[in-house]
Specification:
Blueprint (H helix, E strand, L loop, with lengths): L2 H23 L7 H30 L2 H5 L5 H36 L9 H33 L2 H22 L2 H4 L2 H28 L34 H12 L1 H24 L7 H8 L7 H9 L1 H5 L3 H5 L5 H33 L15 H26 L4 H25 L16 H25 L4 H27 L25 E4 L4 E5 L5 E9 L9 E4 L4 E2 L5 E5 L2 E5 L4 E6 L3 E4 L4 E4 L12 E3 L6 E8 L2 E6 L4 E5 L6 H7 L11 E2 L6 E7 L1 E6 L4 E4 L10 E3 L1 H4 L5 E3 L6 E5 L4 E11 L2 E12 L4 E7 L2 E6 L4 E5 L12 E3 L5 E7 L2 E6 L3 E5 L19 E5 L7
Antiparallel strand pairs: 1-2, 2-3, 3-4, 3-5, 6-9, 7-8, 9-10, 10-11, 12-13, 13-14, 14-15, 16-17, 17-18, 18-19, 20-21, 21-22, 22-23, 24-25, 25-26, 26-27, 28-29, 29-30, 30-31
Length: 889
């Protein structure tokens, strides 16, 4: 390997390594597979443009182009070495891009839940299109970067022209084509490779000619100085030298002059954007998904590169022009100088990157050229304002990152590369935080939630903002101290990563609870597991506690919303707890009414309470008095003594099971309130009706309310009892999934996704699974053993927990991993006490009854708002009430 080849490798290696790392990591940043292919292709194009411009741009930036021309080698040999290394590096980057996207596609095939919105054929088609487009972008980027750099010899101008010229060419090509041909996706798929091949051939030939005939001589047509603006010069120069600008204004003027290339590039962007808007307004809507439609709808995103150009120029270009030492000698503090640079970067970055594209697209929408991402209806709408906030925040963040990168760089291209890598690195870090936060897009069965992405964001945004600002200032101030500056940046970034991870995990996990008092102590036990009580929730907010002596305690519970996102919603007693009179109840149905009637006007209050005693008699409320708690005022209905169980169907009917195995309905499933009810808004009560038998079967075994009203026959078949029907007939629907439960189940599940116990005391979990059988999708019932221990007494499904009560009075839980049907391999202890007497569930929350009669709710089991809360639920249970408390009986 010759010295020249080694020199060229060292020249390209930093940018090449950075771009390769970015292309390998980018496909894993996005949750949806189609976003991955589209956005990673854009990142590939921008990265290849940077690499192509870097090949000769570094020579011009470092002032080594003249030395390159004076090497004892033919120019054709020099050209050959540079082109071979550039093409080889670009191909290696494309190989990394292809391999990473292919692995992402294979990953989606292994875990199809991640891509439930997309079919396999759609993903494969988009993958092929992205790879073909990547090859075409490679040719366009390399050819364009070569000829623009050799022609203009100015990195920023070459970068923008390379980036924008092919887009403008495609837009003009589609505009001059007839409307039908311009909308044809098939034609565009043919024209795009042809355009790439022609542009690549032309660009390569032009670059080769420019290099072989390059002359490093002085320009004879005057001095080209973009930083010299006519409006900054006075009309008549004064002969006498006098001070016309204050220091702050003079430095501000100098910074604006430094950004003259940015203004020119913004003007070019604006001109092409106006062409895009005109095309949308004249043509109308292009074919969805076509190349032209994608370009015209997403052209506004190119404005987000402007903050990178502004920030990358503000410090790095000064160092390239050797102006830093001179500026540090000015009679103004470095702090004020940096403040001016920061102000210019943020104002211009937000103006060009956020306000400019937003304003143009909004004006275009008002004139009929609407963009899919901008609402033309109301500028005050939440969607429009949220879009404006998002663009401003993104452009401000990019401006700050580019300012930090510029403080580390010696020229614009190096700053642009550092910005590119830093932005992708932050995006990858944020994606990993979101994946590990277990937020619903994560389907990995073994993932453990360490933090929520909201809390991680709360830590990350101010941390990165403060860090990049501080590092940019320190890098600017300590410009000559290279080792100290490098060490400071590495330690700062690593410290920020550690602080965000540890801090957000500590906050999410409520670490302060370890310093708080332990779980409150229980008093003397009045209940035991030898003759344990039973907790039951009827699905309407009523929690029943069946005591061993036949007493029943009732209360209506409700979910108490969190006061803020840092709290967790819990359940609370509404203070209506009461014992039903008598001590020999075997079955009860209580209902708190919310809506009654075809017109759905509200009648709040408590409806009939229906109960069956151990002697087979049927009891119901003496009257229906809306808004009053009447569970302690029951009277016997009829003289029959062969009733066995009761379960509520809806607000106006219940089903009853007799000891002879017949099933009965009491009430009505199609109640017309009538004129009297509209007048006094009263429900007449169940006593106004007579029980009627459902069907003629006499093999019913049990009825109950487990979410739905279910009835089970002696042969094991399970049937669901319908709500009211327009025909006035109650419907019984076969629940085939429940039929597949083994006969030895002692505690049946309440739905297809529930745990249950077998007679041998082992714990199992039942769930349904869809499979293809003979061309049709069928639902199959699966069973998995959770624990082989044989000392479990009861179990409950509580949101994301499977909770079981052991014979020693302790509670244990298995946590669901992601949204799969897998759980933690071993249980963890719940609470510190060992005197628990019963467990139940209420609206995805766990409710446990202690031996002293206290009821506790565990918020951590809830699944409904699990992903919405910023903090993990508290480890400690919340006291609901004591069923034996004075005044509650």
């Amino acid at each position: 390997m010759t010295c020249f080849v080694k020199k060229e490798i060292r020249l390209l290696l930093p940018v090449w390594g950075s771009i390769l790392a970015v292309e390998v990591l980018t496909p894993w940043m996005f949750p949806w597979i189609l976003e991955t292919f589209n956005l990673s292709s854009v990142v590939l194009y921008v990265g290849l443009v940077i690499l192509a411009v870097d090949s000769f741009g570094r020579e011009f930036s470092l002032g080594t182009f003249q030395n390159l021309m004076s090497q004892p080698m033919e120019r054709k040999a020099i050209w050959g070495v540079k082109i071979k290394l550039l093409a080889g590096g670009a191909l290696l980057i494309f190989v990394g891009f292809f391999a990473s996207n292919f692995l992402r596609l294979a990953y989606e095939s292994i875990y199809p839940d991640n891509s439930w919105r997309f079919t396999a054929s759609t993903m494969q088609s988009d993958f092929v299109s992205a790879m073909a487009g990547g090859l075409e972008m490679l040719v366009i980027a390399i050819a364009g970067g070569l000829w623009t750099t050799l022609l203009f010899r100015q990195i920023a101008a070459a970068f923008w022209i390379t980036l924008l010229l092919p887009i403008l060419g495609l837009l003009l090509l589609s505009f001059v084509l007839p409307e039908k041909l311009g909308d044809s996706e098939i034609l565009m798929k043919i024209l795009f490779p042809v355009f790439a091949a022609l542009y690549g051939w032309w660009g390569f030939r032009l670059a080769r000619r420019l290099f072989l005939k390059a002359e490093d001589v002085a320009w004879t047509g005057g001095v080209i100085d973009f930083s010299r603006w006519r409006y900054f010069e006075p009309a008549n120069r004064s002969v006498k030298s006098h001070r016309r600008w204050r220091p702050f204004a003079a430095l501000l003027k100098k910074e604006l002059q430094m950004q003259s290339v940015s203004f020119i590039c913004a003007g070019a962007l604006l001109a092409i954007h106006l062409v895009v808007l005109a095309m949308r307004a004249i043509h109308g809507r292009f074919q969805p998904g076509s190349t032209v439609e994608v370009i015209t709808q997403n052209y506004w995103s190119l404005w987000l590169i402007m903050p990178l150009l502004v920030g990358g120029t503000v410090i790095a270009e000064e160092r390239k022009l050797n102006m830093t030492d001179v500026q540090f000698c000015l009679p103004i503090s470095r702090r004020k100088q940096f403040a001016i640079k920061f102000l210019v970067t943020m104002v211009l970055g937000v103006l060009f990157g956020g306000l400019m594209p937003f304003g143009l697209e909004l004006v275009s929408a008002a004139f009929g050229g609407a963009n899919n991402l901008f609402s033309p209806n109301d500028i005050r709408s939440a969607t429009v304002l949220d879009g404006l906030k998002a663009l401003v925040c993104v452009s401000a963040g990019l401006s700050l990152i580019s300012l930090f990168a510029s403080s580390l760089s010696r020229h614009f291209l190096q700053g642009l590369t550092i910005t590119f890598v830093t932005g992708i690195g932050l995006g990858m870090f944020g994606f990993l935080l979101r994946v590990l936060s277990f937020d619903g897009n994560n389907y990995q069965p073994e993932t453990i939630q360490l933090w929520s992405w909201q809390v991680a964001t709360l830590f990350a945004v101010p941390t990165w903002t403060g860090l990049f600002f501080w590092l940019a200032w320190r890098n600017y101030k300590l410009f000559h101290e290279h080792k100290r500056r490098l060490r400071m940046n590495i330690l700062g970034i690593m410290g920020a990563l550690a602080f965000i991870v540890v801090g957000s995990a500590a906050m999410y996990g409520r670490t302060w609870e370890y310093l708080e008092p332990a779980e409150p102590a229980h008093s003397m036990a009045k209940l035991s597991l030898a003759n344990s009580p039973i907790l039951h929730w009827d699905g309407y907010g009523i929690l029943s506690v069946y005591l061993p002596g036949g007493q029943v305690w009732l209360d209506r519970l409700e979910v108490k919303a969190a006061a803020n996102r840092f709290a967790f919603p819990t359940i609370a007693s509404v203070g209506l707890e009461s014992f039903i009179s008598g001590s020999n109840w075997v079955s009860l149905a209580v209902r708190y009414n919310e809506w009654v009637g075809r017109d759905r006007f509200q009648i709040p209050g408590f409806l009939d309470t229906v109960g069956v005693q151990s002697n087979g008699t049927l009891w119901t409320s003496e009257r229906s008095d809306n808004g009053k708690w009447l569970v302690d005022q029951l009277t016997q209905f009829g003289n029959e003594s062969d009733w066995q169980q009761v379960a509520r169907v809806d607000a106006t009917s219940v089903i009853l099971l007799k000891t002879n195995g017949t099933l009965w309905q009491w009430g009505t499933n199609h109640f017309d309130l009538g004129k009297q009810a509209y007048t006094d808004r009263r429900w007449p009560g169940l006593q106004a009706f007579q029980p009627t038998q459902l069907g003629t079967n006499s093999d019913w075994q049990t009825v109950g309310k487990w979410g739905a009203t279910l009835a089970r026959k002696t042969d094991g078949s399970v049937w669901a009892v319908s709500d009211r029907d327009a025909s006035g007939v109650t419907d019984l629907r076969r629940m085939t999934n429940f039929d597949q439960l083994p006969p030895e189940v002692t505690q049946p599940p309440s739905s297809a996704w529930k745990p249950y116990l077998r007679k041998d005391g082992t714990l199992w979990f039942s769930h349904s699974e869809n499979r293809m059988e003979k061309g049709t999708t069928k639902e199959f019932f699966e069973q998995s053993q959770i624990s082989r221990d044989t000392n479990w007494l009861s179990t409950q499904w509580a949101g994301k927990w499977i909770v079981a009560l052991r014979s020693d009075g302790t509670l244990w839980k298995w946590e669901q991993m992601g949204w799969s049907d897998q759980f933690s391999k071993s249980p963890s202890r719940l609470g510190i006490h060992s005197d628990w007497a019963a467990i139940g569930s209420f609206d995805s929350y766990l409710v446990s009854l202690a031996g002293d009669g206290t009821l506790w709710s565990w918020a951590g089991s809830a699944a409904n708002d699990y992903r919405e809360m910023w903090l993990a639920p508290s480890r400690q249970p919340e006291l609901l009430t004591n069923i034996f408390a004075a005044g509650k009986n």
